[in-house]
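User: Hey, my collaborator sent me this sequence without any context and asked if I could get a structure. I don't really work with proteins. Can you help?
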Amino acid sequence: MVVILHTKPLLSSIILGTKIEGVIIVILITFWTALVAIVSDTRHGLATDSTGSISNGNLYYFSWAGLATGVSLLTSYMRSTFGFDMGGELRSRAERLQQWVWAGMLGLIQMGSSARLFDNHCGSQSGLGEAEMGSIMFCRRSQLGIVLGIFTAIFSTVIVGFKLGVSRSSKLPWLFTSELVLSGVIAGSQAVGVGFLTGQEGPAAPLNNLYYSTWGSLAFGLLLVGSCVENWSIAKGALRDGDEGVSLS
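Assistant: No problem. I've predicted the 3D structure and written it out in structure-token form, which is a compact way to encode the shape of the chain:
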């Protein structure tokens, strides 16, 4: 309906750029979020089977695509209506802020997916038959996924909070050191997580939310480490050349 309104200038002014459009977008995001949670749940057997593997690729991937489209519509609405460019703010507010936000989101997905798999296959109230219950190794690795997701989300939230609280021009060497250490911890722990979670008898062995979030967390951890090391090398070279105006951020 909204697409049709774009072709009618008189009707488009009723919804486009108004609070009505914003409410519609928020409702769509709410529905898509609920849909992603439902179709990814192994108990329902819609897009994943009892092992957590994707059994209906169209439903699984298009549910995530719908959620991504809703978020994209929301950012576009905020930019056109309120002049707030979320992506631009994340890029300009502080270096690596956008990567830390993504790492935190992936950590939350990893934690939630691991917890759901643990509850569904290891809890006493799972309702599954004995053949569908997870092994001891499966359950312990699911707990590992929960721990990794929690720490990744916490570390990322702490760094994002500090970066939002200071200006881009502020010289805070301790913040850069914290970024380097925490990104290294995330990358190292997620590398271990990839081995245990996506390996044989791991909860992320089949393609599922946990598989993608684990590999995604590792990728962003490595990107953050690489960015910090690059900044450190540039600053070290500038100091060696006598340029005191370069700072780590």
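In plain terms: The chain is about 70% helix and 0% strand. You can pass these tokens on to your collaborator as they are.
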